[in-house]
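Predict structure. Chain length: 449.
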Amino acid sequence: MRRSMRLGLGVCATALAFALPLHAGENAEDRFADWSIHATAELEWARGVQGDQKFELLVDPTFEWRPEGRPWMLRGVGRLRADAFDRIEPGHPHPALRSSLNRPFQAGDHVQLELRELVLEVEAGDAYVRLGKQQIVWGEADGLKLLDVVNPQDFREFILDDFDDSRIPLWAVQVELPLGPIVAEFVWLPDPTFHALPVAGSPYAFTSERLVGRAPAGVPVVQDPVDRPRRLVRDSDAGLRITGRFEGWDWSAVYFYAYDDTPVLGGALELSPAGPRLRLQPRLERTHLVGGSASNAFGDLVVRTEIAWRSDRFLPTRDPSARDGLSETGEIGYVIGLDWFGFRDSLVSFQVFQSWLLQDDRGRFRNSMDTNLTLLARREFMNERLRLEAIWIHNLDDADGVFRPKVRYELRDEWTVWAGLDIFYGRSRGLFGQFDRSDRLVVGLEWGL
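Prediction complete.
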């Protein structure tokens, strides 16, 4: 066994040894009436078709302080991540797209420590205020995102992580204010942190031409560092969401002004002593998002809809006259979801996602209309202790997708085990087909401490 693997396994065991005593002895709530302290730990192994991907331990300690008789509470969540293999993010490169106050601490190649959340929640009259590092969730779609754009995403495992784990919490101010029959929610995010993109050589590094374009044959590519916005106020993001209910429909209307979390890979050919080369100069662009959602229950059927318009989208194009090799356009996207609970302890959910690029450009690497379908089937047995589920995501335009069956069993209240498959298919140009050789088996164990 290689030295790095032995070291990673040793770190996993050490972290587990420190975590387990949190569960032993007297409960913290018995000693401190205002305090609640607990933790969860998760051990997961993933084996891909090209070898082991990860053997990872996550420990998430959580504390809450609720002073009796006071209109506020403080909540914090930490995370220790220890991976024996270091193949999902090999070498843990410097997180250039994260602000200095939002970077995890790397203890070598195998261990990472991170403050996931630190939130002060205050009731001020009718208003409810949340200050600190947090997740802000606006969308309700499954599998793919449309309105859930406030927090950037960690794509270290593409979209295979749960949303709660893949969102990158941000330092933010969130204020909710009831205004008669509606609630207005204002968010301000002075944290210039953006998507965490997979590094070259990792199992889920982006290679699809839809995302990164296509370099001329035989021309080397040089990529400059991303010029990340750094001004506290001028470069901050802000948004407003209004929610209400009308004749059985829960609805929302949102506006969000922010930097697109995905860097724009603009580039140009240049001459060098060794010959021509393509120099990519990534940058981040501002965008407006206007949209809304609505949902209603009709017996065993729940209908969900979301729609969003985004300005200033920049996508790779083959057009040689395009500036920086990019095509600029607006985009309208929507999702229609149907959730059926007609069978006992079961759910069948079907969704249609469509994205329409408003400016025509036949040189783009994706069609103007792009359609994804999702199908989720879930059944629970043994008083919800055993769960069987499968989710299928399929892109109609590229005929690619991913299929994810999973079984989950609760051994007892604190212990849960699971096993599943992540199976990609399709051509390398597609969003899912680019990972056709990254299929894997996942086995995991979770326990509460």
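Summary: The first strand starts at residue 35 and ends at 48.
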